[in-house]
Every structure is written in structure tokens, then in C-alpha cells.
Amino acid sequence: MMNDTAIYIGRFEPVHHGHLALLRHALAHARQMVVVLGSAWQPRSAKNPFTWQERADMLRQALPAADHARVQFVPVRDYYNEARWVASVRQEVAARVPAGARIALVGHFKDASSSYLRSFPGWELLGVARQGSIDATTIRDAYFGAGSGAVLAALAPLAEQMPATTLAMLHRFAQGSDYLRLQQEWQMLRQYRAAWASAPYAPVFVTVDALLRCQNQVLLIRRGHAPGVGQLALPGGFLEPRDTLWQSCLRELAEETHCDLPEDTLRAALRQISVFDHPDRSQRGRTITHTHYFDLGAQPLPAVQAGDDAAQVQWVPISQLAALEAEFFEDHFHMLDHFLGLTSSLPSASP
Q1: If both were cysteines, with which of 167, 200, 220, 248 could 208 make a disulfide (CB 3.0 to 4.6 Å apart)?
Q2: pTM for this prediction
Q3: Which long-range contacts (C-beta less than 8 Å, at least 24 apart) are formed by 197-206?
Q4: Domain covering 204-340, topology
Q5: R_g of the chain computed on alpha carbons
Q6: Is 93 helix (H, G, I), strand (E, B) or coil?
Q7: Is 244 exposed, middle or buried (0-12, 13-18, 19+ CB in 10 A)?
């Protein structure tokens, strides 16, 4: 029986023929299709180099014109919280599919990252065997590993695995400044991982972050180094060997912002400590952070000045944070959302 709607969830960073095979399979088994574009509103990174709009354009250009009217593209945040993410996907699908419609979910179990396919009971799973050995990670590695001016040559061995429109888009993107910045970030991350490659076990890093609130503003930095150079973040860093989590939090806050509040003041202002441990929250490897939420109430704003790894430090009104979502490093916007409820009144398909 033909399904009313097929759902295809992916990041498409970038689009390749394996994606198109799943799209064609879905269109052959449903009257219409909803493509859910993950990692929406993430800042550009070596893992997520393209905006959701650019990815939608890549998919649209690779599809026959006759199929365009049958396909809708829907951006969805990662949330780094599976229950919230699943609810968001269901909400977006429900807004586009009539009640009682027969819905199918298309996909294949590639690895552990495909476990989300089991999170939608009630939707028929249209399983498809993996199409070839290519994946987007391989393409990105070749793309960012290319020598100066050699992008097309680096992608040549993979060219048959991608639509010509994707290759053309990758070539155009490589002419801009974002490509060079992401290439440098990719190289830094590769060296970072190589330094730990000989460890007997995959390392798990521990970090701390400080969310300091005062007069309904929060203290943020602009990162001074890769990864995420220039992006907004909470003050924080790695746990020092001889520090407690509390000591590291105070040290990082002082080093990056020169905020000289007494420890007793910060202890009195501490409202919550939450752990953020999603396996994919950091490109540097498995990184578990402990975020300390302080609220100074109506006290005067403490004087601050950028230092250490921070290129800039600033007080930002909470009312402005949602509009800055695409500027935040890794999952830092979602950490703020956890404490401050920034997306509770926002539809997932608009920032």
C-alpha cells in the first residue's frame, strides 16, 4: 500500500548519491515527502559546514524538477536531547501531514548514529540497504584536506559518488573565506585527535562552564582560537588535574573574563549545576561538561575584560539570545536553553 508521506531525516553535509537513493526509494513509496534537515542553526564547523538552506538547495538541485512539488524541507535543531528532538520532529511532521495519514520513515542502520530510526513508533520503517561505501564524512575529509587550489583534484576520486550540482556547489564554496577557516579548523581537529590516537582507550574529556546571569543579562565570550574561533560561548575550559569542578569553574571564569567576584558571592549566587554529556556535543572527542548556573539578581553588572582564550567578553540581554543561535559554539546555545528556556516559545522550524 502506498504511504501518504515519507519522512527522511539527515544532515546531508554534503549531499551524495547514497542520500539520493533513499530519496528515490521514499518517493516511490509515498505520495509526498518531508525531508528533515538536522543540525539546523548550528554555526559553520568542519562537521556542519553548510547552512540548512544550502543543504536544502543541494537536495532540490539534485532532484528532477517533476519531484520538487512532492518534497518539503524542514529544519530541526539538534537540541542534544533525544526526547526533545523526537518531539520536535513529530511536531513539524504533524504540521504538514493531515491527521490519520499513513506515514513511513525511510533510512538504513549505518552505525550507532542511526539509532534514532527506532524512536518513532507508529511510523512504518522503510529500511534500505546502504548504497555503496561513500559517506559524507569521507567527502568532507577529502574536501578540507585538499591542498591550496586543489579542491577539484581532491574530490575527483569521489566525483562519481556525488551529483554534479553538489560538486559545483563545493567548488563555489571553496572560493570563499568560510572554506579557509573551516579547513584550518579541520586540520587542527585532525592533529588534536592524532595526539590521542595512541591512548589505550578513547579519551573522555571533562570540562566546566559558567553561566553568569545578572540583571537578566548573561556573560558570554567570543572564542579566540579554533575550534569555533569567533563564536559565542560560555566562559569555561578543561578540568585541571588538581582542581575540583568548582575550583576549575571559578578559575576559568576569572581567567577568561577577569570577573573578580569573591568566591562567597558566587557560592551564594549558585542556582544549579547540570551535566551535558551528549556523545556528539564536541568535535574534539567525547567531552562531558559541568555547567554552573549563577544568578546575581539585580546586583550591579560586574566589570569584565577578555583574557586567556577569550577574544572578547560581553554582557548580552537574555531577550537577544534566541536571535544569536547560529553564532554559538557547539551546544552552548542549548546549554543556555536548558537553564533559560530560550526555545520554549519558538517553533523548531524558525530561529
Answers
A1: 248
A2: 0.91
A3: 202/285, 202/286, 203/285, 203/286, 204/285, 204/286, 204/287, 204/288, 205/238, 205/282, 205/284, 205/285, 205/286, 205/287, 205/288, 206/238, 206/239, 206/245, 206/287, 206/288, 206/289, 206/290
A4: Nucleoside Triphosphate Pyrophosphohydrolase (3.90.79)
A5: 22
A6: helix
A7: exposed
Q: What is the CA 125 to chain-centroid distance, rounded?
A: 25
Asked if 309 and 223 touch (Cβ cutoff 8 Å), the reply is yes
Instruction: Report the C-alpha gap between 171 and 325 in whole angstroms.
Output: 28
Q: Give alpha helix (H) positions in 64-176.
A: 82-94, 136-144, 151-155, 164-173
**CB distance 8 to 106 below 8 Å:** yes
For residues 161 and 317, give the distance between their C-alpha atoms in angstroms, rounded to a whole number: 46
By the 8 A CB rule, do 55 and 15 touch?
A: yes
Distance CA 242, CA 240 (A): 6
Q: What is the dihedral of CA 253, 259, 265, 267, to 10 degrees?
A: 0
Domain spanning 3-178, CATH class: alpha beta
Sheet strand arrangement including 103-107? 71-75, 30-37, 3-10, 103-107, 124-127
Give pLDDT tens digits along the chain (351 positions). 788 999 999 999 999 999 999 999 899 999 999 999 999 999 999 999 999 999 999 999 999 999 999 999 999 999 999 999 999 999 999 999 998 899 999 987 666 567 788 889 989 888 776 666 778 999 999 999 998 789 999 999 999 999 999 999 999 999 999 999 999 999 999 999 999 989 999 999 999 999 999 999 999 999 999 999 999 999 999 999 999 999 999 999 999 999 989 999 999 999 999 999 999 999 999 999 999 999 999 999 999 998 878 999 999 999 999 999 999 999 999 999 999 999 976 655 544
Residue with cell 525511510: 106
